[in-house]
Write a structure and sequence with these properties.
Distance between the termini: 40 Å
Number of strands: 3
Order of helices and strands: EEE
Largest sheet: 3 strands, antiparallel
Shape: elongated
Oligomer: single chain
Structural class: mainly beta
Length: 75
Amino acid sequence: MPIYDFSCRDCGRTFDELVRADTRVQCPGCGGVRVERTLSLPARPVSAGKPADFSSLGPPPGGGCCGGACHGHSH
């Protein structure tokens, strides 16, 4: 369930909300339903002041994938 940023067309308030498929978004300030989703920026990874290390992302060492389903190596 994603969290989206919204802007109310009636009162101008901006807010974020956790949205499910059946969620009807309503402004928490004025109760208006004339809201539009706005562009939001993702949060930076928390790294405690150190540069983020993404070296563990990607395929595992040795090239295996999905239990060998890609047939990338001989068994």
